[in-house]
Amino acid sequence: MRKIGKKQAVVTAWMLIATLGISPMVSVAGVSTDAENEHMVYTEVNNQKNGKMVQESLDIENASPSDAKVGADESENRENSSLGDDTEHEETREDKKDGIENPEYGFQAESAAKATPSEAIQEVQEATPSNAVMIAQSTNLWGGMEMSDHLDGEGTKASPYQINSSKDLKLLAYNVSNEEVDGYAGCYFILTRDVSLSDSASWLPIGYFTEADDTEPHPFKGNFDGNGYRIYNLKINDTTQSYAGLFGSVHGAVIENLTVDGQVNADSKAAVLAGEANDSEIRNCFSKGQVRGVGVIGGIVGEAYDSVILECTNTAGVLGGTDVSGNQEAFAGGICGSAQSSFISDCTNDTTDSYSALYSEGYVGGIAGNIYETEVYNSYVEGKVGSTSADYIGGLVGRMQSGQVKNGRFAGTIGAFTSATLKTAGLFVGYIESGTVELGDDLAYLYTDSEDKYSLNPFGNKLTPQIRLEHHIGAYYSNQRDYSLYQLGGFTKQTNCYFYEELEEGVLEIGKENVHHYAPSKTGDPVRGYLVNIPAIDHGTLSVLESQNNFAKEIDWANPGALAAGTKVLVYTSPVNDTEAEPPVYYELEPDSLFWTADDFASKELIQSGAGEMAFSMPDKNITLSATYRAMTNGVILDRNELTFDVEQIRSGSRWNSQIGWKVTDPQKLTATIIPDSAANKNIYWNVKDTDGSSTDVILVDENGVVSVNTSAKWIQDLIKAGVTNQELYPSKKITTEGTGYGTVTVTTEAGQKRASAFVTVNFKITDDTVVPVSGVELDQAELAFDVTRTLEGDRRNPSESYSVTPSKRLYETVSPEYADNKEVTWAAGDMDMLRVDQEGMVSVRADARWIADLIRTEEEANRENPYHQREAGGSRSSYVTVTTKDGDKQAVCAVNVSFRTVDNTVVHVEHVSLNQSEVKFMVEKLMTGSRTNPKVEYKVSQPQQLAATVTPGEAQNKKVGWSVADSSMAAISEEGLVTVKRDAKWIQDLEAADAANVAKNRYALSTASGTRDTIVTATTEDGQKTASCKVVVEFKTTDQTTKPSSPSGGGGGGSSSGGGSSSRSSAGSANGPGKEKGDWIQDTVGWWYKNQDGTYPKSCWQQLSYNGITEWYHFDEKGYMQTGWYTDTDGKVYFLHPIGDGTRGRMYTGWNLIDGKWYYFNTISDGTRGALFVNCETPDGYRVDAYGCWIP
């Protein structure tokens, strides 16, 4: 359905009248005595019948601007209010009886507002410009809103934005709907206190439209945590508004832990919390108050797509009305109006108090009005659902197209079993649309609180004869422990389990993680439970039982179940020994292995085991119990019986100062095998001994059985000392010492002290690779010189850069003595950032050296204030190259000098252009004087304005600028930047043409043509095509100072007439006036007139007459015909006489009235000028009207 913007509301209503020939009647007087049959908007068109007057009902909306705010106190009494005791026309009275619903129009006779020629309808408030109309005159919804200038917090999960006041909420709503942010996607918000919205007469939702004529809202996409607080005094009072609620539209959002209390009176997609939810999650939220609408409405969410609604409760009234257009399907649900591809679980709707109600036309459900591919689990409904105005009513779901409804309880009442409009009603589902919905798979575990309620079909139009015991559909008893199941029209009481077990079985059959479980209270009725998962235990048993609860059952791996949080839970576990094994295996509970773990892994608790009682307190989480049993140990064996290690000391370098190295066999791991393999206690420890049983330090073993050699052992060190001493005596000889040692490694089990050992052999030798050392080294050059040149080309602010460097130079080394064993050398640069040298002695310098970059950066910083200064960076730096012998680290050094300079060949280009003004304004005034029918017209146009362009930088070489204008039909600009405006622009001509057309309809109307148009003037540089713009605003207005000829008296529609002939005047009703006997209203070919009983008739006068006992003022022309429309009396006072043939044509208007799209105020006081138009003054209720009586917003 196309959404109508607020500013279009009034115009659209009148277009409806003109196009369809009908009159929209807006019922604002009150609520039916049966609140469930209330209809907010309805249309009534009565056709001519039995020659009587055709009546087209038009109830012009009556409400003062101050009355647009509807308070909660007023709403509480609506169920006992009525629309009044107005007498009905004969045409409608025949079709109605007191208190009986009219099947044609869907409302009760007592509740219908009736149009009669009377001012005596006290219940219908007199019309004033309502808040909705005031807002409708501006396309900007958010102007003038008082809000916070920022939100505390960072918007992260750790530091969310804090909502502390209604102004914070308004800022959030404004930023989302005005696209200041992308719906706050990925951001977090938290409510820090209870917040009242009493300062908002009609709340603009979070996730709403930017402009009144937008067709799609901007959704909220963040995470909102109510933190257990509430938002109250929410008010929305706009029956044209969709996406209504605290949140209008949410997409990808999370809303949780929030209570919202308020009054929502809207069109469709309306709820107390969120009008529409898409791909969002709403959990642990509460809605209170009342929501009204004509399309899709709900307590928590109006319409949901691909969303999750968990643990939510609604106590708000959900009151659906009539869609006049007939384009919207009506869906009303306590939690959600309509849900598609969504998940609803553990939700409650309670409308049992006198203020709450749940009804609508179309489809009504205690949880959802309509579901499609949606799962509804663990739902609970209390209170009355639906009324005689609904098409389909379901205790849980109104219409089920597809999806699942399971584990639901209906403890309420169905508002209607039969009526003229009701098609089907069901205890659980009102109407099943799809033939694929099946019992068991899609509908199961559904219960009412009384078997007597099954006088109504469980599923409305289908499936009732097919219900069997295995579908688990029945009723629970008042003690909430016992229940029965329905089959073949009768009930079978179940005695094998309690009702909480039946509900928990339903939860387990559903198999969803986020569905609540059920446990028994101390009296056996079902309460919220948390699942206890016990997996099968190897070599043992494990089960739990709630302490001191006669209704609890034992839970183990084969019998899952749930327990209430805070209850004491007893744990039972024992080993299962394998006595038939060879040898037999006996098991024991492993220490600290009995514990529970939360399914979210956020918490874990060890359960103390021992001789006493094993127990724990049940947490408020689903948990899994674990226990581990282990077998005892009978023996141990090793994977190897022998290990061998080779240890070699390698001596290198100078023979006079040897370098020592080691070559040792890698550590070797021994693997111990416990017998039997199923033994749970496999703890072991290791030690080493000499072969004679004494201690040894030659071999080591760690806790993992890894064996290694200790090169610092005394036996190895003694062999080394002997070899070195021999070489000191004979320095020309190498050392050739060798030897062998032995030991054992033993492993011992902790359980049973079982042992196994391995024999270890260690072979040791010394390898002498020492050499004659180098004594010195020299270089062929003592100094080298290099040049680095930097060249800049192109734009000075962004130049291209190149470097040229002196080619590389070679150094040659000489090592002494000439016969040294190792003459290898290495090369190194003193400053590696400045120099490079390879291992052949080739030296080069780096153009990207840090010292060169520092010189350049220093110059750039010095020129930061003048970036167009020519670059001159330069300098010199010295370093060195070193050659080092690998043998002896002998060194020689060569100095290296580097010179750096900059050659700057760049130029300066244009970078920016600016204008001396960002906006220039012009006025074109059309001045009209003289007679209004033949005015004198002249135009006043603002003088041309000069624009000046400034090019930067000032050093730029080419500063030429060109000018252009975006809309040349509005304005022109010279080469020098002089702006002139065109008086005869087409847009001005269009405004004048439209005004002329309006004046043509009323030759005495003032010319009001006005408007504003803007365009852009752009300056563009020749160098670089840089641009700057100036906004040109042209305002056109008409000043109409013409004088109006004196207004003729009389009005349209059967007023003054030449009376060119009489007619066959047929009687259409009777009335009487003060001081007269009864008379008759007569209509002939000319119009309506009134015939007194004595044959006379009123003319050229005001006459107070009665119709069906209701008195009103009428005016008759000089020929005696009733006048309608605008009428100016002989004293100059202006009146308006009702022009519509609705049974009250010709009556005099009083109070506020909407005429031709404008509001006028007529005197309501009987002071001799009752009904006279207020002009150029303030009305009694504080509003201003202009010289023509029009309300000034």
TrEMBL record:
Record InterPro entries: Big_2 (IPR003343), Cell_wall/Cho-bd_repeat (IPR018337)
Low complexity bias locations: 1063-1074
Family annotation (Gene3D superfamilies): 2.160.20.110, 2.60.40.1080, Cholin Binding
Cell wall-binding repeat placement: 1099-1122
Keywords from the UniProt entry: Repeat, Signal
Signal peptide bounds: 1-29
Any Pfam family: Big_2
Tree of life domain: Bacteria
Name this protein carries in UniProt: BIG2 domain-containing protein
Species this protein is from: [Clostridium] citroniae WAL-17108
